[in-house]
Amino acid sequence: MTIWINYYSVIDLQAVENGPWIIDQKNQRSGQEERLLILVEPVSDDSASVCSEIAQAVATLFFHEKLSVTGALLRSLRQADYNLKEWNKRSLREHHVSVGLTCIVVAGKEVTIAQVGPSLGYIVSEEQASPLRTKNYPAAIPLGGDGIIQPLFSKLSLDEDHLFFLSSFLENTLSEDELASFLNSDSSRCLGELYSRTRDVKNMAAIVLAPTHVDDLVQPLIQDTVPLDSGSEKIVAIGVEQKNNSLQSRNPKDYLNKHKPKKIGRIFNFRRVLMSIALTLSLIVISMGWTFFSGLLQEDIVAQFDESISNAREYVEIFNDNNVIEIRRMALDDALTELERARALMPEDDSAKLLQAQILDLVKTLDAVVEVKDFDATARLTGIITTPFQPVDIVVGSSLVWLHDSAQGRVFVINQDLVSEFIEVYRAGKVYGSISAGYPVALTFDSTNARLLLIDQYRQLWSIDRDGVVNSLTLRGINEVQDITAIDTFKGNLYLLDASSNEVWRYVPVGESFDSERSSVLGSVRLSKPLDLYVDKAVYVLDDVTIRRFVQGIETNKLFEGIDNVPHAMDSMIGSSEQELIFLVDRGNGRIIVSEQGGLFIRQYRSPKFSDLRSIAISQDTDLLFVLTGTELNLLRLVSN
Length: 641
Known about the structure:
CATH superfamily of the largest domain: TolB, C-terminal domain
CATH architecture of the largest domain: 6 Propeller
Oligomer: single chain
Helix content: 25-40%
CATH topology of the largest domain: Neuraminidase
Strand order of the largest sheet: 2-1-11-10-7-8
Structural class: alpha+beta
Shape: flat
Distance between the termini: 45 Å
Strand content: 25-35%
């Protein structure tokens, strides 16, 4: 399944495939290829000359953002809006620029739409055509217009329906019958149907997106019905008279001719008196002028101050009226920016300071920081376990914490209350049942069979029960796997993350072993830098700085939507089936972050002891969180937090 896309523009009554009204770009963002289409619509004649540049700027900003699709679109649109408003402040009113944008991001079969200013689209199914319009909504405010832009976002999976976008003024140009005619047309021919009914429209644009299978891909049929002209002269000409906005410069020669110095003869005393009187009068005039203009300057400062306060309050209203966490966070960021500007203008005014304090409290609510001052139990590692010792990973199961030491290839266990001693249950080089054990490469706990599973450097699979009994197990075809990055279990099945193959393999148990053919879980998925694996009802892959979620081989939404800072330097992830949560070690920011499995950021744990985070684990009843650092194993009771 893929998405077929086609479009055209009309410039001075001439149909062209490419033009200033449509931008189409592909790029990699957060390890995934995304395609961005922008349909731009000028609000005024002067705006038409900059449509292509504005759309290109938004596209460039979008692909440089590391936020989610919605967050990246919102930030890009707001930056472009700010730049246009700054331009308009320096221009005459009749030369102000404002545009409407329809931004369409395609990632797989997921389509995200952001509409701001004049914008019109339709979701077309077999039963009906549902409009996507900004008219009569706050989103109708264009980029560069008066007021704060509030883009209208839509997100859908394009399985059977198709999408149609066109210049918004056509809704009033075409009759209801004409609209119905091309909306009821086949997706591959609807653009031709539209063109046949808009031949007398001087400037316009339209885009269609429709799902199709790779085998069913067809060449764009628009050429058969729309006479396209790809000549460069048609692309340059946009049908709008260009105006020279530059100001007339003063001629310095004329100025000098009018102000030639005169020869001065003998200066008499009475002339000195006249000059003194003139100088005195000049000082009086200057003083009066300064008093007058300083008053105007103060009035201007007050007006700017009031405008910033008003804008900040509008952003708070956007925060209160919106449920999308990233939009809410950006609204607060913009409000704080306005308040910083207000406080710089009038530092002695307390109203900006009070409003700023209220907004910072809202930011803290979104950040959801849980400061961990004391742990419920701590087991020190230095001086307890023989060196060399390098703790790298922990897992929990059978009321035990299993600790992996990479320095000597050992595994220790300790009761999960952390009050007993560490007991060694596995060591590299030791022989178990006539097989020499190697250094552990990956380990997980199999809750179905109450045992630790471990794959060593020789690709031997081992099991260890709570009594410390070590057994070798069969893992069919393990030498055919390119890379053993991480393993996990779910309902007795063993899952193996193979980073080099961009794949997760599933092994069905046969008795106590996994002497079965492996099967593919992800299919044709490209991973950037896979690091860890968690399997529940869905498959979660920690891929560089993002967690990617797959359901039956199909990627769904990413996690940690709306988090304050983008995580980095991550290598450990766990999940809670009961609470449907994902916990992640963010070593780069010294914290443990928590997300709903559906994608929404929930909270973050911070502590001075998190400067050397190694790994985390959670008890089966999800009440206890275990945190491994370079020197300690800590226990935190989540029920009290």
